[in-house]
């Protein structure tokens, strides 16, 4: 019997790792992957609560999250390809023209 | 009181003329402008004659309510007009002399570019002056009071491109304003204590108050404050300094405004408020002292002036002093009598001086005149009549009015021999400097250059006549001179036998029953004294004539030697006792400096501008610092989001814990 | 007991994969460790009884999305990350912020005693039939909307990733 809070802790750890990856990494694609990691952590938390409260709609919501993550990944990677074509770099620190 | 529906037409007609000339004059022909100005002014004069012919002392005073104005609780003021014997005299003087001067200015100002402007301003002045004279309450009178000040400013500074003219206009208006402050204070006192500014209300309320023999009290305060206003408008000590500078304006302006009408507004106002003054011996004393001192003071300055118009200006101040002295000793009708005759001969003197100036190409310095009587016979004749009138020679007008004042100064219950003595000395000095002017201008050899005849004069008064040497003026200018000369000759005869005083008696009879009794007693007892005093004043006039003849005809080199031997005294008199410089140091310069330092630098620049500038630059500083957040760096944005998220989480947890 | 051991095992793999993602310098290594995370997450879902979700996780997430990532990494020939001047704000503000937030949340979670309720193994069977019933009855609108969303994402991806001349040529072809 695993307490619910363990699942939530795991979910939290995954989420925090995702955020840290976003902050620390310099490669755009790796940053994107950290976003996916965050979404996964959230999915776990959804499923855990669905199991705790016997509500199947939690799992349905996970389904929707995955759909949105897929769409976002597709568009995001397309953007990265477009940026790479113009800036010739995948270093996020060098894509900084939008500044004052 | 009977209503008279024509009263309001008299001021409105010149106003219409001013409006027409003001709006349409620029593109009209000079003939059209002249016609408009003269027709409307003449119409006002004609209305005045109509009213005068229909005037009867039995149905006087007349009134007319034109429109409502102010209603505030129990206090109300309307646009109302009023005509009694006093207003009738003023009305006829203002419209009559005003009309003559309008005719004269047609000739004098014909060459000027701004001719329409001049005629418009003159009509405007007539409107305000008539409003002042015909007002039924102090507030409508104040409209006229301020309005004539405005017209005076506009006309003094008529040649506004000249710095001295513009400055003189400003000086006149500002000094007038100081007097107006006193006038306003008096009005406020009246509103507070009598609840009304209407003449009938105020004067009947005053009747019920006791005479303030102690020298303090409400009526004394009102009287003194009214005198402050009158001193400003009528150029008495200490607010006379604007009148000599006002000679920058064209000569018809000096004749109309600064001799005949506007400056007499103060005298009229004091005479109108006779009920108040008679209840306050202290105020009367102050008025008389100011009048007497001003008369003497200004006369002494007139001795040493070289500009013909300045001599006449100081003469005006001096004669106004006579009028105030008369009012101050209770002889209000004598003061008004002198006002009327003064309008005739002083107006004539100014117009004739203008004719002289016009004839010699704009020169005003008497040292460059001389021997003009053969070039300008008519001007010489009319000016001679005026000079004899002002000096007080019988049977000219000035003799009767001046003599009346001197007798009343001696015999009235408020008067004393001191006032009489000052008056006689001033009469002597007046005669002296007027005949000095007469001799310098018309006798001897012509000291100017022949080219002055067709020179373009100063004051933008260009001629382009092409005549050589001095010449007579056209008949459009000489006509009014002749009419005024005639009036200066016979104008005083109306006062013989006390007819004039009797005519004005209903106006001044308030509380003067005792005065009348005293007077008749004094007259009965002192007819002999009166004749003696009359002889003394006439001999003073002769003395002045003799002295002027000696110094300026027989031995013309004597005055320079006398002046040199008197040294500093002469310099002081020639420089008007340095009063202007004194005022400059005491008032003008501190005010300007204070205004520059405190108000301009201190408040405007350092507070108001600084606030705006500094708030703008503060905004710029802040945004300059904050903009570094927009670095374009994705990771820093994420860092800010994460930090903010932590803050929000902490807040929510804290709230959740707290609420629980 | 068995449940706990399994949970801890797969959980450890998750955490290890996540940390490895942070530590690795080459993106392809990070991608592969992310795949490992997703696989073990699928196992966790199975432990919670969500069969359908676990299957979808493996098929969609690990099988499609991560493949997309790997393709892009290889397409762009992404190499090792260079050291570059990063953002000080991110390090100084962001990392402590995240850690503080995480600690706060964890502390709150652990404090709530009723959160200690246990979740038995296979607690809620995620029967595909039941999920389908929910999806097409209660959540029909979001379902349809997400299909539109995918359509838009496809079009967007195509436009964004294509070469500029290709788009222009396509437009001219339409006109001509």
Outline the structure in words.
The complex is a heterotrimer of chains A (100), B (660) and C (176). Chain A has 100 residues and is mainly α. Chain A has helices at residues 4-24, 28-53, 57-87, and one strand at residues 2-3. Chain A has a single domain, classed as Helix Hairpins, CATH 1.10.287.3510. Chain A is elongated, with a radius of gyration of 17 Å. Chain A starts with a strand and ends in a 13-residue tail after the last helix. Chain B contains 25 helices and three strands. In chain B, helix 8 packs antiparallel against helix 11 (265-272). The longest helix of chain B is centred in the last third of the chain and has 48 residues, at 579-626. Chain C is an all-alpha fold and 176 residues long. Among the domains of chain C are: 1-80, NADH-ubiquinone/plastoquinone oxidoreductase chain 6, subunit NuoJ (Four Helix Bundle (Hemerythrin (Met), subunit A)); 139-176. Chain C has helices at 2-23, 27-47, 51-75, 88-111, 128-137, 140-161, 164-175, and one strand at 118-119. The radius of gyration of chain C is 22 Å and the shape is extended. Chains in contact: A-B, A-C, B-C. Strand 1 of chain A pairs antiparallel with strand 1 of chain C.
Give a quick precis of the structure.
The complex is a heterotrimer of chains A (100), B (660) and C (176). By secondary structure, chain A is mainly alpha-helical.
Describe the secondary structure blueprint for this structure.
The complex is a heterotrimer of chains A (100), B (660) and C (176).
Chain A: E1 2-3, H1 4-24, H2 28-53, H3 57-87
Helix pairs in contact in A: 1-2, 2-3
Chain B: E1 2-3, H1 9-24, H2 30-53, E2 62-72, E3 75-83, H3 85-108, H4 115-134, H5 138-156, H6 163-194, H7 199-207, H8 218-233, H9 242-245, H10 251-260, H11 265-272, H12 274-278, H13 281-303, H14 308-328, H15 332-359, H16 377-391, H17 397-411, H18 417-442, H19 475-490, H20 499-508, H21 513-554, H22 558-566, H23 568-574, H24 579-626, H25 634-659
Parallel strand pairs in B: 1-2
Antiparallel strand pairs in B: 2-3
Helix pairs in contact in B: 1-2, 1-4, 2-3, 2-4, 3-4, 3-10, 3-15, 3-19, 4-5, 5-6, 6-8, 8-11, 8-13, 10-15, 13-14, 13-18, 14-15, 14-17, 14-18, 15-16, 15-17, 15-19, 15-20, 16-18, 16-19, 17-18, 17-21, 18-21
Chain C: H1 2-23, H2 27-47, H3 51-75, H4 88-111, E1 118-119, H5 128-137, H6 140-161, H7 164-175
